[in-house]
Amino acid sequence: MNVSRRRVRAMVIKELREYRRNRSLLWAMAIFPVVFCIQPLVVVFTLASSASTELAHEHLLLYLLGIPALVPVFVAAYAVVGEREQATLEPMLSTPIRSDEFLLGKALAALIPSLAIAYAVYAIFLILVAAFGRPAVASALFQAPDLLAQVVFTPLLATWSIWVGIAISARSSDIRVAQQLGVVASLPSIFVVVLVAFNVIQPTLGLAVGGAVFLLVLDALGWRIASRMFDRERLVTGTR
Amino acid sequence: MARPAAGGEPAIAVDHLSKRFGGRAAFDDVSFEVGRGEVFGFLGPNGAGKTTMVRTLGTLIAPTSGTAIVAGFPLTTENGVEIRRRISIMPETPGLYLHLSVVENLACFAEMYEVADPRDRIEAALRAVHLDDRAGDTCGTLSKGLRQRVALARTLLSDPEVLFLDEPTAGLDPVAAREVHDLIDDLRKRGVTIFLTTHRLEEAERLCDRVAILNTTLRTIGRPDQLRDQLFSKTLTVRTRVPLPDPGSAFGSLPAVESWHEEGPVTYVLAVSDPDVAAPAAIRKLVAAGADVLSIGESRHSLEDVYLELIDEVPQAARR
Fold this sequence. Notes:
Chain A is mainly alpha-helical. Helices cover about 80% and strands about 0% of the residues of chain A.
């Protein structure tokens, strides 16, 4: 398959410009991570130093992997149906761009702010805990494997979430409905993350490697599945 | 199949093409050809299938049956990219990214066509639609007419072989519409094939080499004057200062006059086979008879008359 880098790059640049100037989309992306952080921050700040022993056996920081699982859905769900609602889809699809290129551009553009937000919120969380949490609690929380897991799994989860959002967007006729369905579709990922964070599923190296490979395969499949679900005729005419 | 006036390989060749949405036919069994460099008008009422035809030929939707060749390529899914490289479509709504500036919109589309010199192309396209001084404006702040012109500039970026314009002057004021007409004239001179759908019949008459009238099926196709001649007999309208005492003897024996009738006390309508022969003969005869001729002229049926006659054909037939 020939993918034109030039067209994909142009799509990414266009999308990023639109995100920057579309305040409502930025707010939607920014609010959820903040809400996501408040509860764990409150918990951490109220913990006594004596809780650090128990905390060292948990992986509370992995809870923040919910952010890359959830945030991208808001922009990804907007990707196709948003273009359709502002009547820009037909002129864009009239150009030589292939469906694969169109979707790849959309996905990469959604990935960039999603990663930036997820890593930034994570960094802010760590800084706040280090600055205002009890030192014993902070040192119990900061476990190298958890930090590594955050770095590795953030793009993997975000990419999957983006393909789910785009696939829903390609089949929806309303932005709000697409975003709501996107949130519902990302709940299983968040559920797994929470189970791991609270030790219901024991995080091991094998599980981490297996999970990463599984997500990598899902991400590659996601592009294919989203491309299959992208029906030019239905999107242009609203029929079929 | 209706063939174009110009010779050579056609820019568009449509052969028994149909598109159905479920049980409803958008257009049915349509065949025509458009010559290279021709401005081809596609007329029809709302829901006649004009936009669906543009989308089908533009590879946005697939035909249900029939075949077509667009810009030298058979209309198939596999050829979609190659066809879209060579054509440009301006849909009825401009479809601009309203948060982006004019130049950012055009830059994005220039990249989609992978044009060699995007900056020069964008400048040339903006000059062509007289928008070079608005390049930095955000599209959301532009009037409907200006947005339409940006959309037109967008179609020029790729230097297309075939340009599909779907109602390009809809919503434009007369001055802006005239500018679009001038631009179409200019493109015609450069050899661009233009497929123009419009509701403005005077626009089609002024711009198009040939027109097709569609109402799900193709009703007719030809040059506007040819269609007039096919549907309506040629007539001369004669007005005199006072009623003629014996119009029968004045008009009955004239060469090229097939019949005549009165249309008011001092107005006479002559059905003629050749106005150039009948008009001088009528003037000579009337002057010789002492009549004061106020005016004599050929009654021209407009494209609108042709359109209404053909679009009304089916309801009239049903009533009969």
